[in-house]
Amino acid sequence: MAGTLKSATGKSKINLSTKKFGIVVAEWNEEITEALYEGAYTALIKLGAKKSNLHRITVPGSYELPLAAQRLAKQKEIAAVICLGCIIQGETPHFDYICNAVANGIMRVNLDSGKPVAFGVLTTLDKKQALERAGGKHGNKGEEAAVTVVEMLK
User: Fold this and answer.
1) Averaged pLDDT for residues 38-51
2) pLDDT confidence band for 6 (50 / 70 / 90)
3) Where are the domains of the chain?
4) Of 59, 81, 128, 149, which is the most exposed, with the fewest CB atoms less than 10 Å away?
């Protein structure tokens, strides 16, 4: 992902107050996805986006992120979309199939729409790793996803 919020705020030459953003958040692993959302939301506000221009859609799980992202990206007024989810590995290969499908689906929306669509989906081995990436010692990947779409809008 792109640099940190600190490095992006000094470089931004784009007026984000006129841009509308879609944020799609998976409910599965809600404690983690809500922390990712807070990171993305706060970063966009700090970078100059208006609260009224941030449009959230909540979906049941990460598998549903690409469809909601596609619906948002099709809206002319939406400049960029951020997808936030958390997939934690279990004991079956289900993890691999979901991760692959979600990554490919989000990439497809990115390419088909021509708009920035950020992959803010954690794919971790356990909950501890997810928490470390949702505001813990490894930062907040939701914030990084927000910075990424802003960088791509340039």
Assistant:
1) 97
2) very low
3) 54-154
4) 128
